[in-house]
């Protein structure tokens, strides 16, 4: 069978069962309402629409009566308080962690600045020690040797 047809039949069956359970009007009362409305098409639709809405109101009232008991309300309030307390704990942990890392970052910043300054001073001293004439002579001799090799 087609899955759409099975789904449609299941939904229709659920609606019929719901209508039978939660409809507080008898078929005779519905027929009387239709006859009282002069049997016009719009009035018939209006009667069925009102009945449809009434069935849903009855269904919701029944669900509210079963679910919104004092016991469930108390349980909900308890769980709500637990959740609020848990969230406050996480908020405090987050604040503490932030403050801890904020303090550590200052220390790390100082350490990094000192380290960078140390390397900077070392490289500056190495650059000052370099004899550019010696480098120039070495480079020139290397170029000359390459020229000689290329001529051969």
What features would you describe in this structure?
The chain contains five helices and no strands. The mean pLDDT is 82. The protein is mainly alpha-helical.
Tell me briefly what this model is.
This protein is mostly helical and 152 residues long. Helix content is 90%, strand content 0%.
The major pleated sheet works out as:
none
Mean pLDDT across all amino acids: 82
The chain-level structural class is mainly alpha
Number of strands: 0
Order of helices and strands: HHHHH
| Overall body shape | elongated
**What fraction, in percent, of the residue positions are helical?**
over 70%
Contiguous runs where pLDDT drops below 50 for at least 5 residues = none
Total of DSSP H or I helical runs spanning 4+ residues:
5
What is the CA–CA distance across the termini? 92 Å
Beta percentage is: under 5%
What is the C-alpha radius of gyration, as a whole number of Å?
44 Å
């Amino acid at each position: 069978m087609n899955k759409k047809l099975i789904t449609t039949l299941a939904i229709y069956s659920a609606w019929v069962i719901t209508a039978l359970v939660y409809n507080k009007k008898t078929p005779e009362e519905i027929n009387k309402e239709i006859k009282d409305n002069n049997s016009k098409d719009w009035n018939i639709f209006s009667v069925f629409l009102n009945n449809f809405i009434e069935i849903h109101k009855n269904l919701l009232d029944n669900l509210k009566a079963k679910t919104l008991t004092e016991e469930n309300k108390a349980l909900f309030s308890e769980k709500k308080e637990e959740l609020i307390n848990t969230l406050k704990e996480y908020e405090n942990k987050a604040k503490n962690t932030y403050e801890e890392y904020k303090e550590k970052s200052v220390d790390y910043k100082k350490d990094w600045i000192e380290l960078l300054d140390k390397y900077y001073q070392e490289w500056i001293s190495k650059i000052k020690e370099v004899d550019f004439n010696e480098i120039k002579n070495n480079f020139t001799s290397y170029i000359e040797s390459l020229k000689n090799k290329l001529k051969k």
